[in-house]
Design brief:
Helix content: 10-25%
Number of strands: 23
Strand order of the largest sheet: 2-3-1-4-5-6
Low-confidence stretches: 68-73
Structural class: alpha+beta
Mean pLDDT: 88
Shape: globular
Bound molecules: guanosine-5'-diphosphate
Largest sheet: 6 strands, mixed
Number of helices: 7
Strand content: 35-45%
Oligomer: single chain
């Protein structure tokens, strides 16, 4: 059986604007709840003379999930015919930002929820800003609780225009704005009769319309060199270049380039551990290769295919970083950067802006990054390194920073920054 496609979605919005209700409704309307769960929670509410809330349903599910396993962020699963969705619902949570910025869990798309009656709050803007910093490109705004404003088109359009103006400033162009009533299910799975003036997709149609990241195997080939083993066979000096394939595939006869050294060769054989030599190997496999020519390369280099898109090679790059170090991250101090199998000296050169994860305050004037801050900044490594930007290949676009032998920050690379010529 073929594995089903999965997509991570993040849902954000001011408290009480209806995130839990949207999620609960999506679970209920796609038939993704355990049998009888909805009824038993409704029954519980009736018995206790409390109005039913989808939030209770989610709490009940999370309690079950939490038994025996620890979950760091609230995660909910539902299925459509097209794929399985994992909804990550913990914005503003230190853990959430950490996972997103360090790449532990990336979201392909974001839903921003706004209460039609309350309108845009400061938090709605902060969340917009964070979504932008995380580099999430597929964004949809859900204008919720439309029932409280009589499904008034003018109210919806005023929010679309006001929020759109703000989002543009933080470089987000939402794919869509959807008027919904999460509580009643309007435009969630079913098109609503209350919004005949709206002819866009329902939330479910929109989700299925999002484009998912490519499978690792379909991406260009990348293998960070872990080690070089030397041995003599039939009087010949042989070298095996060992590592784990991050993405793509490699075959005997392929021309390869090692970056940043730019040395080239051709694959002579592919050997696995405890398996016979073979012609082709794929993402996630640990392999060793021999080359047709004797070249001297070092662990830490990135092996790529000559005829595929190459990674960036530079010493400066723009990144988002999540800092967990006890001491703040400061400019011009020497740190160690680990990316793939490469370890190299690095300095923080410039801070564009900082968001503190606990309060979500945005600061453009701080000149150091403190514990639990998320910062967009420019780093410079001691020598050029090979990497991909996070939007192209995740695993080669992530790094960690080590301060005093401790992992103190994790980040994602957004873009290469041209090296300045220090001789000028
Ligand atoms: P969260 O804090 O963003 O997760 O918000 P909740 O989903 O818990 O919703 C907050 C309150 O708004 C709850 O009392 C919900 O029942 C209510 N609510 C959510 N969606 C709607 C809606 O579409 N219409 C109405 N009238 N109330 C809603």
């Amino acid at each position: 059986m073929e594995a089903r496609e999965q997509m991570n979605i993040v849902i954000v919005g001011h408290v009480d604007h209806g995130k839990s209700t949207v999620i609960g409704r999506l679970l209920a309307d796609t038939g993704s709840l355990p049998e009888g769960k909805l009824e038993s929670v409704k029954e519980f509410c009736r018995k206790n003379a409390r109005p039913f809330e989808y939030a209770f349903l989610l709490d009940a599910l999370k309690d079950e999930q939490a038994q025996g396993i620890t979950i760091d962020t609230a995660r909910c699963f539902f299925k459509t015919n097209k794929r399985d969705y994992i909804i990550i619902d913990a914005p503003g949570h230190v853990e959430f930002l950490k996972n997103m910025v360090t790449g532990a869990s990336r979201a392909e798309a974001a839903l921003l929820v706004i209460d039609a009656k309350e309108g845009i709050k400061e938090n709605s803007k902060r969340h917009g800003h964070i979504v932008s910093m995380l580099g999430i490109k597929q964004v949809v705004v859900l204008v919720n609780k439309m029932d409280l404003v009589g499904f008034d088109r003018e109210v919806y359009e005023a929010i679309v225009s006001e929020f759109g103006e703000f989002l543009q400033k933080v470089n987000i162009r939402p794919i869509n704005y959807i008027p919904i009533s999460a509580f009643n299910g309007d435009n969630i799975a079913q098109r609503s009769r209350n919004t005949l003036w709206y002819d866009g997709p329902t939330v479910l149609e929109q989700l299925d319309g999002f484009v998912n990241k490519k499978e690792n195997r379909q991406l260009p080939f990348r293998m960070p060199v872990q080690d070089i083993y030397k041995f003599t066979e039939e009087g010949d000096d042989r070298r095996i270049v060992a590592g784990t394939i991050i993405s793509g595939s490699i075959s005997v006869g392929d021309e390869v380039v090692f970056l940043p050294s730019n040395k080239k060769s051709v694959i002579k054989s592919i050997e696995g551990f405890n398996v016979k030599p073979r012609n082709t190997a794929y993402a996630d496999e640990a392999i060793g290769v021999t080359l047709t020519t004797q070249i001297y390369i070092k662990p830490g280099e990135l092996m790529v295919k000559a005829n595929e898109k190459h990674p960036s090679v530079s010493s400066r790059f723009r990144a988002n970083i999540f800092w967990v170090g006890k001491a703040p991250l400061i400019k011009n101090k020497n740190y160690k950067l680990k990316i793939g199998t490469m370890k190299i000296g690095v300095k923080l050169i410039e801070i564009s802006h900082i968001i503190d994860a606990a309060e979500l305050n945005i600061d453009t004037f701080k000149d150091q990054v403190e514990r639990h801050d998320v910062a967009e900044c420019i780093f410079e490594t001691a020598k050029p390194i090979a990497y991909d930007v996070i939007s192209e290949i995740e695993q080669t676009g992530r790094f960690v920073i080590v301060d005093n032998y401790e992992i103190s920050g994790g980040g994602i690379i957004l873009e290469a920054v041209p090296d300045t010529d220090s001789s000028l």
